[in-house]
Design a protein that fits this description.
- The structure is a single chain.
- The chain is an alpha/beta fold and 380 residues long.
- It folds into two domains: 26 residues, no CATH class; 346 residues, Rossmann fold.
- The strands form two sheets. An eight-stranded mixed beta sheet has the order 1-2-4-3-5-6-9-10, with helices on both faces.
- Strand 3, helix 4 and strand 4 form a beta-alpha-beta unit.
- Helix 5 crosses helix 6 and helix 8 runs antiparallel to helix 11.
- The radius of gyration is 21 Å and the shape is globular.
Amino acid sequence: MSYIKKSVKGILISIFFYLTFIYESEEELFWKKPIDERLRLQLYPVERHHILTEDRYNITLFRVGKKGLSQVSTRGKPVIFVPQFLNCIDTYVSNEDHLAPALVFANQGFDVWLMSQRGGEYSPNEDRKEGYSFHEIGYFDLPKSYEYIYSLNPQNITAVGHSQGGNTIFVSLTEKRLKNVHKIIMFAPGPFAKNATGLIPYFVSSRLVDMLAKYTDRINLTPSKYLFKLCKYFHLPSKLFLTTVTDTWESDMNIAKLYQYTKHSPQPQSIKNFLHLKQLLMKGQFYKYDYGYEQNLKIYGQKEAPLYDLHSITESIHLFYGPHDILTRCPDNIELYEILKNSQAKNVTFSYYPTVGHASFILDSKAEFLQEMIKIIEED
């Protein structure tokens, strides 16, 4: 009898091990597919484009059209979505069709582009060892993307950036690298993070990042099937975890759909990006990368790393903020708004959505802000 019990116990343990560590369901395999393959199966026309930046990085752009069409239309106003810290562009299309920002825009007839950043899943550049932060992404990747998109659809282009995606856009604007800009829309941008709380600022500000920088040029965080299963089947622990990372408990996060982008998030990052974010957190201002006194003198002509000049921005900027954000808090957003309002920007608006947090801007259960975004872009 004891032999039978042990055998049954062994079988059950084996089944549990298989289901947890080996087995992948059809749905899991679906979300594991590259973004263009997946969107085609969802009946969206998609094109994959490859560009080469000035500093010789390969960048991949995805162009998405209206659901049900046989091919992408080139007549709509172009909109480019810029990725966040640790995440890739899949985050903009992983919610339900009527809630995912990029899919809502595509179905409204806009010419939607998704820019994959250097070092990520779609633009790995595995042979390159140079460090990069959001500065290089804003200085090289986004301007080249703008140039390429304009060559195919010669209309002024709107950029949409969430979190670090906003920092990337600010680099492009302050360095005067973008041409043919229509509007700039930012969800919870992070140039100021004086009041940030949670695990991300704690980790980035820790000595661990400096220690890692001595031994590696990148942190190879990658998507996990275990994270997928956790988020799919255990909503309460998933939401509890997010309250320490991005959003408060009261956020309108569509937690039931969180698992859908865990197959492509988090993404590998250059250690320099972590170090640059650490410098922003420590200094409380939007500084360029600090290489140390000697290197700063060679690169910037001064001992201290200079500030990005937000006052020099001349474009139309539209900020979106939610009070349940634990990374870019209200005081930091208001400070950014006041600076931009007193800059040379054509127009600056600040939209407040009382049920939104940080990650919920890309995975919200209502996404009411998308209609305001569409209105902003449609206004010439």
